[in-house]
Amino acid sequence: MMFFKSWRTKSKLEQQLQTHLPMLERIVASYEAIPAIQQELMQEVVLAIWSAYQNYKGDALVKTYFARIAHNRCISHVDKAVKTLSGQQLDGDIIAPMQLDKELDDAQKYQLLVEQIRLLPLLQKQVISLFLEGFSYAQIADICSLSTSNVGVMLTRIKGRLEQFFSEELL
């Protein structure tokens, strides 16, 4: 019996996935609003990481490597969804206006932030979600194939847009 317990240890990949799972879930949530589809997309992301991990050379942090794979998989998901919806008429008012109380709890604020991030263009969505995960400007630039200064300008504009939304909604 003792042999089996010591034999069943987690692989390095499983340990890394466990460590970075919350980040991956937040990235997926920034691209998809429907919980059931979020779960499917999360499974696709983990499968993509599992498949690509053998090619990991260690030239970037594991966190950066996982985030890049997650964003690429999410972009593919959005691209596929747009192609599916291209034949259908889209309603101009996707999200109904929200009535906010003066005091929102943290969960509601977080949900509002995620909803606003979902409304951003794809590249801006990718940049802000990486920033919120704690990536440096240089790491974001590397993942998104941008210059570091471009990342800084983009983040300033996104933060301004989000700040404006929250200041208007909370008045």
Structure description:
This protein is mostly helical and 171 residues long. The protein contains eight helices and no strands. The protein has two domains: 11-87, Orthogonal Bundle (Rna Polymerase Sigma Factor, Chain: A); 100-171, Arc Repressor Mutant, subunit A (Orthogonal Bundle). It has helices at 2-7, 12-31, 35-52, 62-85, 106-119, 122-132, 137-144, 148-169. The chain is globular. The model is unreliable at 1-7 and 87-103 (pLDDT under 50).
* CATH homologous superfamily annotation of the largest domain: RNA polymerase sigma factor, region 2, helix turn helix motif
- Major beta-sheet overview: none
CATH architecture descriptor of the largest domain: Orthogonal Bundle
**CA-atom Rg in angstroms:** 19 Å
Topology as a string of helices (H) and strands (E)? HHHHHHHH
Mean pLDDT: 81
Cα distance spanning the termini = 63 Å
Spans of 5+ residues with little confidence (pLDDT < 50)?
1-7, 87-103
Strand content: under 5%
Please state the overall shape, judged from the principal axes of the Cα atoms.
globular
Overall structural domain count: 2
- According to CATH, the fold-level topology of the largest domain is Rna Polymerase Sigma Factor, Chain: A
How many alpha or pi helices? 8
Helix/sheet category = mainly alpha
CATH class of the largest domain: Mainly Alpha
Strand segment tally: 0
The helix fraction, in percent, is: over 70%
